[in-house]
Amino acid sequence: MTMPSHELHELWLVRHGETAWSMNGQHTSVTDLELTANGEAVAEGLAAPLSRVDFAQVLTSPRKRARRTAELAGFASAEPDEDLAEWAYGDYEGMTTPEIQESVPRWSVWTHDSPGGESAAEVAARLDRVVQRARAVDGRTLVFAHGHSLRVLAARWLGLEVAGGRMFDLDTATISVLGDDRGTPVVRRWNVSAQQ
């Protein structure tokens, strides 16, 4: 009697290390910032917990801050994937939410379009492709990306609308794990620092 095979589908998410703009709450998409010294040190701390896990594929946003985090975490050969880039904020690039709200009260990336930026539907379409890539392999997929793109990715994995990502607070240089429980997409771990 043959036992049915049970494929493993897990999606491991790592937000890049700290940058000067992430420290200040500035929206950062296309601006290609380096990690701060502290960001590099904390990213190095990701190597130990991640080295204990076997990954079928490792992907990274093409932005420097994500690629450098991948390198410091022991994954210098991570495959760049433009679909993992941060939500494009358009005219709001480099601004903080309070600055934007001076002209657009109650503005939030989750509920308002950004002039010259991506719509929620555009972000969903590309992160849905990442979900498909992760589900196409038997094993774990590790991705290095950004605060908003990873929160949207989690929402899409769980079958939620993009705005559902607002419920997932995500710090820099943290590890989160999505999986399945008897066919239902679940959150296994969220926003865990390497020191925890």
Automatic annotation (TrEMBL):
Q: Which Gene3D superfamilies does the UniProt record give?
A: Phosphoglycerate mutase-like
Matching entries from CDD domains are given as: HP_PGM_like
Per its UniProt record, what Pfam families does this chain match? His_Phos_1
| Database matches in PANTHER family | BROAD-SPECIFICITY PHOSPHATASE YOR283W-RELATED, SEDOHEPTULOSE 1,7-BISPHOSPHATASE
Q: What is this protein called?
A: Histidine phosphatase family protein
